[in-house]
Amino acid sequence: MDILKLSIEWAKAEVFSAKIIWIFSCIVFLSAGGFALWGKTAMAKAFVIPLIVSGILLLATGIGLYTANKPRISQFEKDYTTNAEDFIKKEIERTTKSDGDFRLVFKILPAIAILAALILMVFSSPNWRAISITIIALVTFLMIVDSNTSSRNSAYRKQLLTSGVL
């Protein structure tokens, strides 16, 4: 098993996830524009600002994911050729920390969705309903992306642990 190739493929998959988030961000911005231009009802107009905020959050998430992982593609080769054993130890530590972070994320995101659903049921104004629906959609999308990332991270960590280099 080529650990370097595995690591580079993992980083490329993370960069691809960032691009998917950017595409979804564009869809959200276009939806906000559509509601702003063609929305006639109070409910339709209420979606504009929550969608713009959601699009900005997604854009920031995608930028963070991209800037964290794009440099790793070239850095992995340098680190691996310098000291393969140290590289693998660092990657195992990083992926272990990420597993813990994902456990926290999968507690927080559903809690946010539940809170948004409660707000949706309690408040009847178009603004609160649009905010709640947008939050639920955003959190659902992030959980889908994060579940894929978490699975990829766990599989990568497992392969690092079984590499036999340590």
Output the keywords.
single chain; 5 helices; mainly alpha; 166 residues; elongated
Note down, in words, how this protein is organized:
With 166 residues, this protein is mostly helical. The chain contains five helices and no strands. Helix content is 91%, strand content 0%. The model has no long low-confidence stretch (mean pLDDT 94).
Radius of gyration: 20 Å
Helix content: over 70%
**Mean of all residue-level pLDDT scores:** 94
Query: In what range is the share of β-strand residues?
Result: under 5%
Shape: elongated
Cα end-to-end separation: 14 Å
E-strand count: 0
Assembly form of the protein: single chain
Elements, N to C (H/E): HHHHH
Largest sheet: none
Structural class: mainly alpha
Number of helices: 5
Spans where pLDDT lies below 50 across 5 or more residues: none
Describe the SSE topology:
Elements (H helix, E strand, L loop, with lengths): L2 H36 L3 H5 L1 H35 L1 H39 L3 H36 L5
